[in-house]
């Protein structure tokens, strides 16, 4: 049985995994973890071609100046559309692992932090401070999720942005090359900018989503999610997820640009010195290169992730997020 830090029980699980104290059991968390694997792994792999265009615009900003010209250049260089599958396997593995921790640990931390607030200030304060609970839970979950993602993201970026012939184009040879030439540092040198990109992104992803859901049902419709049909709930899930995704893209884009450029090159100096050097080499507005592509990609991707995740939860007999 899971317990809060102050020793109070989180759950007395019923059939749906919902505990009497508002927490959940291991069965519930495991289903959420699997839902995160499906939601993140499939969606990120599906938008891999758009990610390749975006990454090349960020890493090779003097060559790839717009979405259209970048797409045309990639087609011309590869002699067709073979470039569209570059990095799909590390994307699938890395983001499946990230989704496992992002969604699963979020549910755990949300219950833990909610329990701590309830025990310290009273159960009514969990509603008052729910935005703080959502932000804290999502940041904590993403911290661990990025540690799982980082090695695979490093390989993916190298595969997708390295000039042809300078780096392997498939996962295992790419992994082995980084391991043999740079060691573990090659896989985890980008963890700080990854946290800088992903933690603000994930806070927005979860807090804005939960907030929009609350506004829709509490303020506009003035009803509970349980009172609405499954199809309507999932439609609102996608809408809320898409809005959250647009906010995420804007908030995290500068860090994403730095992360892509940092992972692309073989670095030798201290982290902050390398980041300053990369920033100095960028043209005016370089941090915002590829933003339109990323808004489209992240908005659609986040909306679909939430829709898949809540569809999975509903199929498992659990309530959709924000109920």
From TrEMBL:
Solcar repeats: 27-112, 129-215, 232-315
Topology of this chain in the membrane: Multi-pass membrane protein
Subcellular localization: Mitochondrion inner membrane
Source species, domain of life: Eukaryota
SUPFAM superfamilies: Mitochondrial carrier
Main location: mitochondrion
Gene3D superfamilies: Mitochondrial carrier domain
GO annotation (BP), single: mitochondrial phosphate ion transmembrane transport
A Gene Ontology molecular function term of the record: phosphate transmembrane transporter activity
Transmembrane stretches, start-end: 232-252, 291-309
A GO-annotated cellular component: mitochondrial inner membrane
This protein's UniProt keywords: Membrane, Mitochondrion, Mitochondrion inner membrane, Repeat, Transmembrane, Transmembrane helix, Transport
PANTHER family: SOLUTE CARRIER FAMILY 25 (MITOCHONDRIAL CARRIER PHOSPHATE CARRIER), MEMBER 3, LIKE-RELATED-RELATED (PTHR45671), SOLUTE CARRIER FAMILY 25 MEMBER 3 (PTHR45671:SF10)
Sequence similarity: Belongs to the mitochondrial carrier (TC 2.A.29) family.
Name of the featured protein: Uncharacterized protein
Species lineage: Eukaryota, Sar, Alveolata, Ciliophora, Postciliodesmatophora
């Amino acid at each position: 049985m899971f317990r809060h830090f102050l020793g109070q029980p989180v759950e007395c699980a019923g059939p749906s995994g919902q505990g009497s104290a508002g927490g959940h059991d291991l069965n519930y968390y495991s289903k959420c973890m699997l839902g995160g694997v499906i939601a993140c792994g499939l969606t990120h792999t599906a938008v891999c071609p758009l990610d390749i265009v975006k990454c090349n615009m960020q890493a090779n900003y003097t060559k790839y100046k717009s979405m259209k010209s970048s797409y045309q250049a990639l087609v011309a260089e590869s002699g067709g559309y073979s470039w569209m599958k570059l990095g799909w396997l590390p994307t699938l593995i890395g983001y499946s692992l990230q989704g496992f921790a992002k969604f699963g640990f979020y549910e755990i931390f949300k219950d833990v932090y909610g329990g701590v607030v309830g025990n310290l200030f009273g159960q009514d304060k969990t509603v008052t401070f729910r935005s703080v609970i959502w932000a804290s839970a999502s940041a904590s979950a993403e911290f661990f999720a990025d540690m799982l993602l980082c090695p695979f993201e490093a390989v993916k970026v190298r595969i997708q942005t390295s000039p042809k012939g300078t780096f392997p184009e498939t996962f295992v040879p790419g992994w082995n090359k980084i391991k043999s030439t740079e060691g573990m540092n090659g896989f985890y040198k980008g963890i700080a900018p990854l946290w800088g990109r992903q933690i603000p992104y994930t806070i927005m992803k979860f807090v804005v989503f939960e907030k929009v859901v609350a506004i829709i049902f509490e303020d506009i419709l003035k009803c509970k999610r349980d009172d609405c049909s499954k199809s309507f709930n999932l439609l609102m899930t996608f809408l809320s997820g898409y809005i959250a995704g647009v906010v995420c893209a804007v908030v995290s884009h500068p860090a994403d640009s730095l992360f892509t450029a940092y992972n692309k090159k073989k670095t030798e100096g201290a982290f902050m010195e390398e980041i300053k050097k990369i920033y100095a080499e960028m043209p005016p507005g370089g941090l915002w290169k590829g933003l339109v592509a990323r808004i489209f990609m992240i908005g659609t991707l986040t909306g679909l992730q939430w829709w898949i995740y809540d569809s999975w939860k509903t199929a498992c007999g659990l309530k959709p997020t924000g109920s």
